[in-house]
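A reminder before we start the practical. When you read a complex entry, don't treat the lines as separate problems. The point of joint prediction is that each chain is placed relative to the others, so the output describes one connected object in space. Small molecules and nucleic acid strands, if listed, are placed in the same frame. In the example below there are two entries. Take a minute to note the order of the lines before looking further.
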Amino acid sequence: MTQTDRIFRVLSWIVALACVVFLMLPIFITVAASFSASPVYTLPPPEWSLRWYALLERRSGLWDAVVLSLNLAFVSTLISLVLGTLASIAVTRGNFRGREAIATFAVSPLMMPGLVVGVALLQFFREIGLRDAYVSLLLGHIVITLPFVMRTLLASMAQFDFSMIDAARTLGLSYPKAILKVLVPNLAPAYLTSGLFAFLASMDNYPISIFLTDARNKTLPIKMLQYLEEQPDPSLAAMSSGLILLAILVLVFGARTVGLNRMIQG
Amino acid sequence: MTSRVDRIALLAVPGLAYLAVIYALPLLMLLAKSVQTAEGFSLSEYRAFFADEYNLRVLWRTLRVAALTTLLALFIAYPTAFVMSRAKGPWLTVFLVAMVLPMSLGVVVKAFAWSILFRANGFINTTLQWIGLTEKPVRMLFTETALVIGAANVFLPFMVLPIYAVVRQLDRGLPEAAASLGAGPFFRFFNVTLPLTLPGVVAGSAFTFSMAISMYVIPSLIVGERQQTLSMLIARSFLYLRNEPLGSTISAVLLGIAIFVVVFSSWLARRLGARQ
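Here is the predicted structure of the whole assembly.
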């Protein structure tokens, strides 16, 4: 190893550590602000307090948004996992033309501008006369979650040994049962990862949802932005800290069961 | 045998039909509408859009901010991916957690956290004054620099992870072999390591760029209405101005750029893949 190599290595480590600090910075700020006694966001806080956590209870509008967002994220992820599994099996195992095109198409919503998809869905739903905000939001959120699921499942199924399915069928399981009892448990890390990312993407979506909400159905990011414009007090930071704690618990669970590295790489 | 294959192909139908109806069809309808007027096919909306100097400025700003964001993210992500691929035990956990945990903080709160940091009396300014770098607070909020930093922060994991995936599978023997043949560090990097990791760089950059040209929440919290981006123009024309033709036209322009990025990056990825 030459001198230059050593310099490169030290520089890389400096950038990498700076990267970790940079990525974690918004989390530190949010958590610090949530324990501040001050009603405006000043850092470091003049005094520590739990008042914003106590206030959370009375912010009922926020809770409705949390419940709606959790509901949408859960249902859309679940539907995407089912649709994604079927489509991924077809792409991996099928022997027909255009399989690559299908894979690209299914993952493409990830790279399309959210606001444009939102506008298009708004006009489309109006055209077909769909007025229910929850249904519109759910249909829109499946477009967000499905690509995450497809991307990970396609990569994992390419590595999966499908002769195990054939073996299970020889032993008497029907095809659907063999998929459910052999493929799904074998790809558990891929399901956990893609489900988690899809769930988070749905929870965090603003640009598509903004066009599909009505006065009663506001998702969390929409409610939060509106709240920040109206009364930017740290109760939002308190709630976000709660969600971070939840995410840490999920990460610990994921690390224990499938391992963090495998989880992130699907 | 053929019937079994056909039946497997059918499994793709529900998901594809879903995306065709609830994603592709609405986008096509949007495109169709943008070239349609009462008199029939017309590009007048586009002509009007590109004739307006303000729109061109917004378009240019959107592309510039996205390019700068992608560059900054790439600059941070590339060395980080290499360090991550060598890190073991607790260090690897630290890196992986730093990539995933920030995703649990929504983009709204993240952008707001950055707007707090960039304020005149914010943490960065007080620190700069405390170490004596400046006497007066520096104006950071509402600047393009602040927007690029904030956006790079939000999109960074999407740049690191694809590069990390490629670097992890990189055969360490190749640069070493080059070294034993007498190649210097710079030659090795530019002729061995970089070409092998380019597919990850292309994937990460394409993803970051396409997210950055269409971001809405981050600019609206960090730079505000003063410096519009294409997404903000779209939101404004639909939600406030109620000018749907204008909104559809800008949407079509943004969609065109996004489709170009997808097609170009997958062409580039295929070429790079074929060369190896």
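Discuss with your neighbour: Chain A has a mean pLDDT of 88. What might explain this?
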